[in-house]
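Record format v2
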Amino acid sequence: MSVQSNVEVHTEWGIVSARQAGRNLAKELGFSSVDQARITTAISELARNIYLYAEKGEIIIESVERMQSTGRKKGIKITAKDEGPGIKNIRQVMEDGFTTSGGLGAGLPGVKRLMDEFDIDSIAGEGTEITTIKWNS
Amino acid sequence: MRIPILKLHDYLLISVQVELDDQTALQFQEDLLNKIHQEGSSGVVIDLTSVEMIDSFIAKVLGDVVEMSNLMGAKVVLTGIQPAVAITLIDMGIMLDEVPTALDLEQGLDKLQQELEG
């Protein structure tokens, strides 16, 4: 059984709603309070990027499962999708301290470190899709 | 939404009890600087015990407000950062090196007193 929630992000309030939806599902799935904070923070960074650079997009939060030799593993998957300008140089945005918005430049590399799996798919002029998963250990 | 700022003698006390959205954080930055100016406060304690998440934006706003207050001549101490928040900040690579911190409000006030007397 998988639970999914989609949050539209086109205002700052979308960032807050996405965060809350993520925290609720992380809690339901039994993540520790530290992992809940990691997941919520990662969602916040992804949602803010949508708001800042693409103006609108959506955050999809869902539970995922994977079979392993040691049994079934549960996790939370966050997808951030937008039809914004796309990322021209992915290597550059994954560098610590790189920013075009006057922020700390901790956003995307930070998300990658907070989560277990991280994928960026971006086409200049078409949009960006970032998928990231945290497994419940 | 606005975060209340309380005056205690020469100090200002703030307990952040709401989930910080961008607008509230920026409004707070401005409100605090105005209040320091208006009251002539020498020290500020911002208590973050109830804050469950600090992302890079909120971290920047907090770091900035500490520096801005320093420029005006007021010392700021952040207190009560939760374990999960501290872990997440370091995971993200956010150090907040220059920012004075203390475990709780009581120790924060002690720290302010030491800094202002020392």
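Residues 15 and 47 of chain A are 5 Å apart (CA to CA).
Strands of chain A lie at 4-9, 57-68, 71-82, 117-123, 127-135.
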